[in-house]
Specification:
This protein has about 300 residues and is mostly helical. The protein is about 65% helix and about 0% strand. A two-stranded antiparallel ribbon has the order 1-2. Strand 1 and strand 2 form a beta hairpin. Mean pLDDT is about 80; it is low at about 1-10, about 25-30 and about 35-45.
């Protein structure tokens, strides 16, 4: 059994570190962690999900009619060993939800899509409560979600003509994103983000250095930091901080050291590809850096073996 340990590095040659990293990667990539005791065990294949058949659903209905919600008895008499009592209970709850709110679990029909499109023409995007009244069994949340799906398929990329029109409308009406969005059949968020994209200004090295120093001094106090960047939005500043590790004084850049690799291996065993949790465990790397390390180095070493 292997135990976790911390390494303290003193004067070690670069060649020794490089060889150590290779050995560490090859060894760790062939093992999977047991979350309970941190022992290394063989990888476990995920259990195959078996779809419920119509015959099984009918059998479940008949069993409920005879025994009520006594899952252990139903399991022993009708479904053992394939469906556990817990799965029977879950399936019955889903069937009841479908019975109570069928529209939530039914696909939208072409006729319903046409009603939605006409509602958008009459009321405009955003008036979801009014549009939902055109349906018998659809509420405002469903209508809004469906419109996102439809509009993403039909509106496509912004054209140069739309870009020009967007800038003209903003110059005329200001940041009335909802009103402007109706002109393009786009959401307010889509309009705002595209406007931000059109007006983005490239960050300079001096700005990156300033952001680095300010975070080092004030931490992630964006209210204070924003005062030093009057021409940039909170969104722009935070996005730069998240996407560009060199602006974060607590994050390492460049090659991974042995301690970081050991921390990554342990965190990956526990959290898998949940990079935020992996990064929180390492503390000196961002989620994006952890993802890049996995795909560029860790995964390749597994495939090569």
């Amino acid at each position: 059994m292997l135990q976790s340990f911390n390494l303290t590095i003193f004067n070690i040659s670069k060649k020794w570190i490089k060889n150590g990293i290779k050995i560490n990667e090859k060894f760790s990539s062939t093992l999977t962690c047991n979350k309970k005791n941190d022992n290394f065990v063989k990888p476990i294949k995920p259990r195959k999900v078996v779809t419920w058949s119509e015959e099984e659903i009918k059998r479940l209905h008949d069993a409920i009619s005879e025994y009520g919600p006594n899952w252990k008895i139903i399991w022993e008499n009708f479904f053992k060993p394939h469906r556990s009592p817990r799965l029977l209970n879950q399936k019955w709850r889903v069937l009841n939800m479908i019975k109570q709110r069928p529209s939530y679990y039914n696909h939208w029909t072409p006729e319903e899509d046409e009603i939605l499109k006409n509602g958008i023409k009459i009321y405009g995007a955003g008036k979801w409560v009014e549009i939902s009244k055109l349906f018998k069994q659809r509420d405002s949340l469903q209508v809004r979600s469906r419109w996102k799906v439809i509009s993403s398929k039909t509106r496509g990329k912004w054209t140069p003509e739309e870009d020009s029109k967007l800038l003209e409308l903003i110059k005329e009406h200001g940041n009335k994103w909802t009103m402007i969005g109706k002109t393009f059949n786009r959401s307010p968020d889509d309009v705002y983000l595209h406007y931000f994209y059109l007006n983005r200004v490239k960050w300079t090295k001096d700005e990156d250095k300033k952001l680095y120093d300010l975070v080092k001094k004030y931490g992630e106090d964006w209210e204070v930091i924003k005062k030093y960047f009057p021409r940039r939005s909170f969104y722009d500043i935070k996005l730069r901080y998240i996407k560009y590790p060199r602006t974060n004084p607590n994050i390492n850049v460049g090659k991974w050291n042995l301690e970081e690799i050991a921390a990554f291996n342990k965190a990956f065993c526990e959290f898998g590809k949940k990079w935020k949790y992996v990064a929180d465990s390492i503390r000196t790397r961002t989620p994006n850096q952890c993802s890049q390390y996995y795909y560029r180095i860790f995964k390749k070493s597994v495939n090569n073996d």
